[in-house]
Amino acid sequence: MVKEYLAHGMGVNSTAMMLMLWDKGIKFESVFVDHGGDYPFAYDYCEYLKKQGFKITVLKPEVSRCNTIEEYCLKYGIIPWFGMRFCTQKFKVQPMHNYFDKPCRCYIGIDYGEQKRIKRIRFKNNIENVYPLIEEEINRDACIDLIKQYGLKVPNRTGCWLCPFMKKIDVRLLYLNYPDLYKRRKKIEDSCIKENFYFSQGKPMDVVAMVNIPDICKNEG
Fold first, then answer.
1. Whole-angstrom Cα Rg for the chain
2. Is residue 21 assigned to a domain?
3. Same domain, yes or no, for 23 and 116?
4. 71-102: pLDDT as tens digits
5. pLDDT tens digits, residue range 99-146?
6. Does the N-terminal peptide bond of residue 179 adopt cis geometry, omega within 30 degrees of 0?
7. Which range is least confidently modeled, 168-177, 181-190, 208-217?
8. Looking at the structure, do residues 65 and 145 belong to the same domain, yes or no?
């Protein structure tokens, strides 16, 4: 019998997908990888779902004796960047694949309208990736409605505070709303062994986040 897993990112899509599969009577194991790069609300939502009675397996990656992306970056003096997304493969995808009892099926929460994202996902031998939200033509709004129908809190939009794809406003909001995470991200950038190499925008974080101007945007977002 082929075992079935659900890649849970603690966001809207994966939560709605979990509810949809549960409602259909499909037996699966929800798996969340704690790589240390998610915002605090993602970990809070994981605990919230557990308290609601949902069983979620939390994996802790180990890459070169490092359990988090942050630790790995500081150890080797590198930063994630759009040209080399080692973080996704090493700290998200591979830990799940190592845990899976193969052959297996893995449900991935890409919603209807995001089909282009499928092209960027690597397929591994003996793992069948399945996209039920696309198959059922369920978009993000429908996912939110489904979560509300079950009486659950709608999770915040997930993301990684180390992501090199963060927009300028996101870096600014990280500085304003999560100063500790901002400092940790900046420490990684400052520790990079490659000279004049930054997370994004081709500029240092302080320039991107406008940290030297008055905090006129504290109510942003």
1. 18
2. yes
3. yes
4. 999 999 999 877 667 898 899 999 999 999 99
5. 999 999 999 999 998 877 775 565 667 899 999 999 999 999 999 999
6. no
7. 208-217
8. yes
Distance CA 204, CA 185 (A): 11
Max Cα-Cα span within the chain:
60
- Other CB atoms within a 10 A radius of the CB of residue 170 amount to 17
User: What order do you get walking across the sheet with 104-108 strand by strand?
Assistant: 56-59, 29-33, 3-7, 104-108, 127-130
What is the CB neighbour count within 10 angstroms for residue 1? 4
Distance CA 216, CA 41 (A): 25
Q: How many CB atoms lie within 10 A of CB 210?
A: 15
**145: CB partners within 8 A, 6+ apart:** none
How many CB atoms within 10 Å of residue 90?
A: 17
User: CA geometry: angle at 45 spanning 39 and 47, to 5°?
Assistant: 115
Residue 204's φ and ψ, nearest 5 degrees, are -60, 155
| Number of domains, the chain | 2
How many Cβ atoms are within 10 Å of 98's Cβ, its own excluded?
Answer: 10
Question: In Å, how far are 64, 79, 194, 208 from 189, measured between CA atoms?
Answer: 20, 6, 10, 13
Residues 88 and 195 grouped into a single domain? no
Look up tokens 């500029």; give the residue: 203
- Do 136 and 104 sit in the same domain of this protein? yes
User: Which residue shows structure tokens 């082929």?
Assistant: 2
Three-state secondary structure of 40-87: HHHHHHHHHHHHCCCCEEEECCCECCECCHHHHHHHHCCCCECCECHH
